[in-house]
């Protein structure tokens, strides 16, 4: 299914925004080569990636324990490492990629395919 998200001008390059589509919460990102969408919750301990930061036009860094995910693929590029000691938790909360969906731009509007 294809869902309309917002006007593309409402999401400037280098920014991200939490949204909902098809009953799912997602985060939409505007990188240098286009728009991308990932699930909204971190796979480590479910923190909101809508409050995360975009690093080097490539990754979203979780605001809680600083795991980093490749926005384009959802793959883990660095697992939770903050604060020191969180690694103990990682024994039961192992690396898991984010779900991603393709985003297209058409007539100044963004659409996600889910
Ligand atoms: S909740 Fe995201 S890294 Fe722990």
UniProtKB/TrEMBL annotation:
Needed co-factor(s): [2Fe-2S] cluster
Family membership noted in the UniProt record: Belongs to the bacterial ring-hydroxylating dioxygenase ferredoxin component family.
Name this polypeptide is given: Dioxygenase ferredoxin reductase component
Residues of the Rieske domain: 3-112
Top-rank lineage group of the source organism: Bacteria
InterPro entries in the cross-refs: Rieske_2Fe-2S, Rieske_2Fe-2S_sf
Gene3D superfamilies in the record: Rieske [2Fe-2S] iron-sulphur domain (2.102.10.10)
GO MF annotations, alphabetized: dioxygenase activity
Keyword Metal-binding: yes
Species, as recorded: Alcanivorax jadensis T9
Pfam family, one: Rieske
Keywords carried by this UniProt record: 2Fe-2S, Dioxygenase, Iron, Iron-sulfur, Metal-binding, Oxidoreductase
């Amino acid at each position: 299914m294809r869902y309309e998200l917002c006007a593309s001008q409402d999401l400037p390059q280098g920014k991200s925004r939490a949204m909902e589509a098809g009953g799912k919460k997602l985060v939409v990102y505007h990188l240098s080569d286009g728009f991308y969408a990932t699930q909204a919750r971190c796979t480590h301990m479910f923190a909101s990636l809508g409050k995360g930061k975009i690093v080097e036009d490539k990754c979203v860094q979780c605001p809680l324990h600083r795991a980093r995910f490749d926005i384009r693929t959802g793959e883990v590029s660095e697992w939770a490492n903050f604060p020191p000691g969180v690694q103990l938790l990682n024994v039961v909360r192992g690396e898991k990629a984010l779900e991603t969906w393709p985003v297209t731009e058409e007539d100044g509007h963004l659409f996600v395919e889910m």
